Amino acid sequence: MLQPFYKSSDLLECGCDEAGRGCLAGPVVAAAVILKPDFRNDLLNDSKQLSERQRLDLRPVIEQNAIAYGVSFIDNRTIDDINILNASFKAMETAVKGLNVRPELLLIDGNRFRTTLTIPFVCIVKGDAKMMSIAAASILAKTYRDDYMAKIDADFPQYKWRKNKGYPTSEHRQAISQYGISPYHRKSFSLLPESTLF
């Protein structure tokens, strides 16, 4: 059972999570969500535990029942420049900055976070399976990123991003081996075993 609050309903708690950290192509996407204190939904869970249809059904429910939410995209070139961990931190920070309400506590999925924000935060390992607001953020981050990968798939159908979303499937790696890389691939990642592409 997901917890609605880390501390109390009197605090504006904001769940933060990202999607696409382990992908070979595309952006890392983060979401920040402040849910209404009385919001409950039996289906809400870590996005990885839900089907694509369930995630898409939940997205408008989350958006309509959020006090505020923000979504941020950090592109593959920035990921190559500052590394994926820092890009994930930057994505979450940017998502929080996009909120039209200032949260009083950030609930970060994972075990570490660096930020220039002055808002207190707590890191929660597997937070997307424990806290409602982090689960909501995981669903927004995942669905917005999947939509983006489906969109750029139209220009580069050989990589099957609509299907694999940029993750390192054998089919994706085989396409990289056959066609080379696209402008959306992360050059700092091991795109192929002992890659000699660059």
Fold and architecture overview:
It is built from six helices and five strands; from the N terminus they run E-E-H-E-H-H-E-E-H-H-H. It has a five-stranded mixed beta sheet, with helices on both faces. With 198 residues, it is of the alpha/beta class. The protein has a single domain (13-179), classed as Nucleotidyltransferase, domain 5, CATH 3.30.420.10. The protein has helices spanning 52-64, 76-82, 84-97, 132-153, 161-164, 170-179; strands spanning 13-19, 28-35, 66-74, 105-109, 121-124. The termini are far apart.
**Counted beta strands:** 5
Number of helices: 6
**Rg from C-alpha positions?**
17 Å
> First CA to last CA: what distance?
47 Å
> Could you report the average pLDDT, rounded to the nearest whole number?
95
The CATH class name reads: Alpha Beta
Second rung of CATH, namely the architecture: 2-Layer Sandwich
Helix content: 25-40%
What is the chain-wise order of helices and strands? EEHEHHEEHHH
Looking at the structure, the CATH topology is Nucleotidyltransferase, domain 5
Largest sheet: 5 strands, mixed
Spatial shape: globular
* Sequence stretches where pLDDT stays below 50 over 5 or more residues: none
**Number of structural domains:** 1
Beta-strand proportion: 15-25%
Helix/strand-derived category reads alpha/beta
Spatial order of the strands in the main sheet?
Answer: 3-2-1-4-5
CATH superfamily: Ribonuclease H-like superfamily/Ribonuclease H
